[in-house]
Write a structure and sequence with these properties.
The complex is a heterodimer of chains A (665) and B (160). Chain A is an alpha+beta fold and 665 residues long. Chain A folds into four domains: 1-160, no CATH class; 166-403, no CATH class; 404-517 and 627-640, no CATH class; 519-625. Helices cover 64% and strands 12% of the residues of chain A. The model of chain A is unreliable at 300-305 and 651-665 (pLDDT under 50). Chain B has 160 residues and is an alpha/beta fold. Chain B folds into two domains: 14-46; 48-147, Beta Barrel (OB fold (Dihydrolipoamide Acetyltransferase, E2P)), CATH 2.40.50. In chain B, a hairpin with a 2-residue loop joins strand 2 and strand 3. The termini of chain B are far apart. Residues 1-16 and 148-160 of chain B have low confidence and may be disordered. Classes of the chains: A alpha+beta (665), B alpha/beta (160). The interface between A and B is large, with 86 and 63 residues.
Chain lengths: 665, 160
């Protein structure tokens, strides 16, 4: 009964969104705002309907209704309630429904908030927005229906995949989905502007904050995904250039390029075509990324028919490419601009270079991810590339981006003086060189790492100088240091939020260079009472204890005392959690974490029957915590840049602007 | 804003055509550099990607070459042996089709922890090279098991 109600809600939402597409188009053709309003209302009605469907599936999950197939696939009676709720996105069908909810939420919010600003674009925005929603709702209505009844009602469910029971994994998918679905908003308005032929920067102003919000969530999703891999997957790393990781990284790259190049259009009214291309590309990569993750087409040498959604996604992607390219070509002439780049040493040239490098990373990542398909097409043999390929090609490109991050803010629009920039770079370059020399003297002998540390320190100094210049200028006007700092950021949040994000990336870069170049690992079997050493650390194995955990868990936990240069620094307790019903083990590392490094231990094997002996794999991950700290700074910066302006502030600013005229001093 | 003081209207009058050429050349150079990086990174870093059946069909040609093999894990064959304090051996068999297992490929991975996802019916991708007949030696860090985010739903209910 409840399942039928849920399915009915999906069907009605599907019908409503088709109506929205047709009515908006009809209203636009006839110039009749009543049809457009009706289309908007139909579009907005999908949100409560999809929300209802989601609530019903959550109800079924909470009540262990195994007569619905999705419910027994992702839950079991012993699972705690919060996990049952999150099981909504623990499987294909549920996560697609959840995806629809977020998409409808974004679309509805954008339509309602921007209705008065962008009335002329609205019919087309509704049309484009509803096309995406039609596809995704169609998938849950006809292909991956989460309300499908079970063929046989099992007495107990399978339970959520244990690897997905980690807090990072509970919030990681919603963050990625928010990022992915959020990017449909700039696409929707960009396409609406193209179709309508209104090619000023109205669509950019309308969607700027939406883009930042989508980008924020996508970044958060990527960082949390890395953290989850580090905490749960037990290989001591956080990024492996896996197709699934690349699938979410590629839209992020295109979106990041867009966030930079959009500033050239705002300031100089250039690169209009390029900006639309980037928005379209980001959207297509979102669809493509979803396709890779859900169809398993890349990861598997086996056929693509593993999942029914694969060919459908492929078809949808094709349609959206043709649709986008058609309108781009059709409006190409109107997007021409009279302005040109004048100097290599200008802000706009720096942004352009930034875009080139981002596109380079994107191209290399796309090429590597799709190489199995490309090579099979041209040579008949499937070839793959692994992490060495990505590190080799993207390493230098990331280095170029980090360098630009420091230097580009010193350039001016139109042109800048080479001498002035040179003067500004001299001391930071030297200071960074001193650090590298010092590191070399301390025994760091990897040239790649030394060069990497040089670039990061150089750009870090330059970025900090940007803040200090602004703060000093304000302090000269009599502001206290703290007021100067917060006013500096508060008055131009987009710019200084951006620099703050750069700071986060640079701190992350320290961590990435440290853990990439200097990770150490070893594997050893220890008997109770024996010890093993790695780097400055030594650990003593005190034994393993076995005890039952919550649910159906059986936990085996090793007890290790850790010494840093002979000084006791506490215990680590790597463990294996065994889900007895599904037979799924889960290895949880024990970590001694400091600012400088992580001493990371996993228990590989425990010989309970024979001796009190266990095998451990030990990793020493230098500077790894800088990755997470940098991620935190990064997200904070994005929040600074994206936070909505308070309404009263806007009013004060407006009054202040008027005041000099009204009251001449 | 400070930066606007540096802008100059004269700039607009500079010869745009020669400028354009300059940027086209610059762009081409950057594109060439990126393509060089990609080609350079490809050399020596590509692996053939084979199924178990394909591996056996071309065994002589593939002998000793670094490649990636993919197949489904037979649960009964998984074995972890601790040889001495610093050496361990992980072994398992993979096949192309679990319902109709034909030839099995025996995977051997030295000093490799047992991946959590290594269990019956899991999809494994193994990077390594073939040794003596029917044995495939995995490279260090060369075991990949299918990540749960791929939403595989091949399992059947316990009661059916």
């Amino acid at each position: 009964m409840i399942a039928n109600l849920g399915f009915a809600a999906i069907l009605i939402a599907f019908a409503a969104v088709i109506y929205a597409a047709v009515a908006s188009l009809y209203g636009a053709k006839r110039g009749d705002p009543r049809w457009v309003e009706s289309a908007r209302n139909a579009m907005a009605s999908t949100l409560p309907l999809i929300l209802l469907a989601c609530m019903l599936i959550v109800y079924l999950l909470l009540t262990n209704d195994f007569s619905v197939e999705y419910v027994w696939r992702v839950t079991s009676t012993e699972m705690p309630a919060y996990l049952k709720v999150t099981a909504l996105w623990g499987g294909q069908a549920g996560s697609l429904l959840f995806w629809n909810l977020l998409l409808a939420g974004f679309t509805t919010a954008a339509m309602l908030r921007k209705w008065d600003d962008q009335r002329a674009l609205m019919p087309y925005a509704i049309l484009v927005g509803s096309i995406t929603q039609i596809f995704f709702l169609g998938l849950v209505a006809f292909v991956e229906n989460p309300f499908t009844p079970s063929a046989v009602i099992p007495p107990e469910g399978q339970g959520l995949n244990p690897l997905l029971r980690h807090p990072g994994m509970i919030i990681h998918p919603p963050m990625l989905y928010l990022g992915f679905t959020g990017f449909t908003i700039p696409y929707t308005f960009a396409m609406a502007a193209l179709i309508k032929g209104r090619l000023d920067d109205g669509w950019i102003r309308t969607t700027r904050r939406w883009t930042l919000v989508a980008w924020l969530f996508l970044s958060l999703g990527l960082i949390l995904g890395g953290r989850w891999a580090y905490d749960v997957l037990g290989w001591g790393g956080y990024w492996a250039w896996d197709p699934v990781e690349n699938a979410s990284f590629m839209p992020w790259l295109a979106g990041t390029a867009f966030l930079h190049s959009v500033m050239i259009q705002e300031k100089r009214n250039m690169f209009k075509v390029w900006n639309i291309v980037l928005v379209v590309l980001t959207y297509l990569l979102v669809v493509y990324g979803t396709f890779i993750v859900r169809s398993g087409v890349i990861s598997s040498v086996h056929s693509f028919a593993q999942s029914a959604v694969g060919p459908l996604f492929f078809g949808f992607l094709g349609i959206m490419i043709v649709f986008s390219v058609y309108w781009l070509l059709r409006r190409h002439d109107q997007l021409a601009t009279a302005n040109h780049l004048q100097s290599f040493l200008s802000r706009e040239a720096a942004f352009l270079l930034n875009n080139f490098v981002f596109m380079g990373v994107l191209f290399a990542t796309f090429w590597g991810t799709n190489y199995p398909i490309i090579s099979e097409l041209f040579t008949g043999e499937k070839l793959t590339v692994g992490p060495p390929f990505y590190n080799k090609v993207n390493g230098p490109l990331f280095a170029a981006l980090l360098l630009l991050m420091g230097v580009a803010p010193l350039t001016m629009w139109y042109r800048s003086s080479a001498r002035r920039i040179g003067m500004a770079l001299r001391w930071p370059a030297l200071a960074a060189l001193l650090l590298s020399v010092a590191l070399f003297a301390l025994g760091v002998d990897s040239w790649g790492a030394l060069f990497g540390f040089w670039i990061v320190t150089f750009s870090l100094i330059l970025t900090i100088l940007e803040f200090s210049k602004g703060v000093r200028a304000r302090m000269k006007r009599g502001e206290s240091p703290w007021a100067a700092f917060s006013n500096l950021i508060g008055r131009d949040r987009r710019r200084y939020g951006g620099y703050w994000i750069h700071l986060g990336v640079l701190v992350m870069a320290f961590g990435i260079i440290g853990s990439y170049f200097f990770q150490q690992e070893t594997q050893i079997r220890l008997q109770s009472g024996e010890s093993a050493a790695l780097g400055d650390f030594e650990m003593f194995f005190n034994g393993v204890r076995q005890f039952p955990g919550p649910d159906d868990l059986l936990i085996k936990e090793a007890d290790l005392s850790v010494f840093d240069n002979g000084r006791p620094v506490g215990r680590v307790t790597p463990r294996t959690e065994f889900y007895t019903r599904t037979g799924q083990p889960m290895t949880i590392p024990g970590v001694r974490s400091t600012v400088g490094e992580d001493f990371y231990v996993i228990m590989v094997n425990w010989e309970s029957a024979t001796a009190d002996a266990a095998t451990f794999r030990i990793f020493l991950n230098p500077l790894i915590n800088w990755v997470w700290a940098g991620g935190f700074i990064f997200i904070l910066g994005t929040l600074i840049a994206a936070w909505p302006d308070p309404v009263d502030k806007k009013v004060t600013a407006a009054t202040r602007a008027r005041r000099p005229a009204a009251q001449p001093a | 804003m400070a930066e606007t003081t540096w802008t100059t209207d004269k700039g607009e009058l500079l010869k745009p055509r020669s400028n354009r050429m300059k940027f086209v050349v610059g762009g081409v150079l950057i594109a060439a550099a990126i393509i060089f990086l990609v080609v350079n990174a490809m050399t020596g870093n590509t692996q053939l990607y084979k199924t178990v059946g394909e591996f056996y069909a071309e065994q002589s040609r593939l002998a000793g070459r670094d490649l990636r093999v993919s197949g489904w894990v037979i649960g009964d064959s998984i074995q972890f042996t601790q040889i001495d304090a610093t050496t361990s051996r992980l072994e398992f068999d993979i096949v192309d089709d679990l319902q109709n297992p034909g030839q099995r490929l025996h995977i051997v991975a030295m000093n490799e922890p047992m991946p959590d996802l290594l269990q019956h019916e899991a999809q494994a991708m193994v990077e390594g090279r073939s040794g003596e007949s029917g044995v495939f030696h995995a490279n260090q860090g060369g075991l990949f098991l299918k990540c749960p985010t791929r939403y595989e739903e091949a399992a059947q209910p316990a009661s059916s």
